[in-house]
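The protein record filed here:
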Amino acid sequence: MKYALLIFSGLLAQVLYAQSSVGPVSFSVSFPVSKSKVPLDGRVLLILAKTNKPEPREQVSDAVETAQLFGLDVNELQSGQKVVVDGTSFGYPKRSLTDITPGDYYVQAVLHKYETFKRKDGHTVKLPMDRGEGQNWRTAPGNLYSKPQKIRINTGSRQSFSVVMDQENPPLDAPKDTKFIKHIKIQSKRLTEFWGRPMYLGAHVLIPAGFDEHPEAHYPICINHGHFPSDFDGFSETPPPANMDTTDYVERFKIHGYKKIVAQEAYDFYKKWTSKTFPRMLIVEIQHANPYYDDSYAVNSENLGPYGDAIMYELLPEIEKRFRGIGKGWARFTYGGSTGGWEALAAQVFYPDEFNGCFAACPDPIAFDAYTVFNLYKDKNAYYAEGPFRRTPRPGQRNYLGQVKVTVEETNHRELALGTHSRSGDQFDIWEAVYSPVGPDGYPKRIWDKLTGAIDPTVANYWKDHYDLLHILRRDWKTLGPKVTGKIHIYCGDMDNYYLNNAVYLMEDFLKSTKNPSAVSEVAYGDRAEHCWNGDPTQPNYISRLRYNTLYIDKILKRIDESAPKGADVKSWRY
């Protein structure tokens, strides 16, 4: 009787599964000749969502509420030619169309365009060049897309849906100069040579009050590293309207009216910047979006090219020339958070004589033996902690209570659906593009199998020698130590959403142990603070993250007073 019930239960489960499963479903995606008379290369992205507000393309994310995504590479796709997305197409979070539950959906397709680069190293690659949007496939000018259309996927029947990408993202306007914010763009000789086509670097420069009235003054410079800035952020000459809508709600901070708070902070910064007591200096946000990401990580890379040298020896001198920078290492500082935190520390490590201090907040992994939640050198798999009888998924994001939002595997599979060959324009792929050697096909060598998570130890060792900042400091302390002592400041929340505090702990242990010379460094943690905590224990994180441009000023001035060489200009800019 017991076994009969088990057999009956199994048969019932099979019947119920058959009733709820879909039949062979496919989508044919195309674009009309009115959108392009020439064949196009790129990645076709098909999105399914349960609502069209916002559009399905805006709903793809790491959140549990994410829309469903499928992706296919296309080469020389002609107008009218149909790209078929079916059960064999790779998807996220469901792997296949056959896993989709029957029901009503909104469908939308996007063609993320690629162009061909013939690089100096002899490789020819197809990549999505940034078009002024900061490597965002949703909004990149020239990308084709379809209007959302409602469909119904039925149970058990064969269905085919046609999707036509007859819309196109418009070009973006360049930011305009104001009294205090200036914009600069140069063609980089180094990057143009590497990529085999004109390549540019840009910057948004905040100039001090009294700049025109004091032509004799030359200024220290602070580079505020971070993700792609469409314009200088967090500075406004006008206060927020008194009747500004405050119904917006930010779940992360559990607060209403955050947009008005942001606007008020921007205006408060303007008032400080123009006050008589605020130090006069230049603050720079760099634009270095590239074919892989919204910025270059400000270092030289086999796959991205010599961005570190191009920024250091082409862009920075031009900024200092145009805006009367002092142009000496003792008068240069760098700071930033997250990606910008890693870049700030990397700039100090790779160009130790060129900067007089870095302030690295919540930096991307600065030690790869704590590469978020795993050891890149000892662990065999990035997605799972593996034992003889169990595989435990590795968490990818958490909140301050430790509740997991997404796993490392899920985030990487979303990236894989967005783009093969490290072309997703997202986080794990850019680390791979920056840190990896070039593979035989011209694209970055995989640090791990994107599908399974199996780590390649050969690539990991390359990463270690070239970009593991802790390893480099430890290895080269005899020569680097005297050049960076007193210059390193690191801040991180101890509940960082991406587990970035793990690597900071290891860096702190090393910096405390240094001798001949001592590091004379600063490492601080925010209790229960999440991502972007930048060293201010007196303010909630949602406020301190808006104050990068004022938070480190006192420490910068103290450092200048202590280290400026004899005869240095420490007065012309203090008016």
Residues 1-20 have pLDDT under 50 and may be disordered. The longest helix spans residues 2-20. The two ends are 94 Å apart (CA to CA). The chain has three domains: 24-168, 181-367+468-563, 369-465.
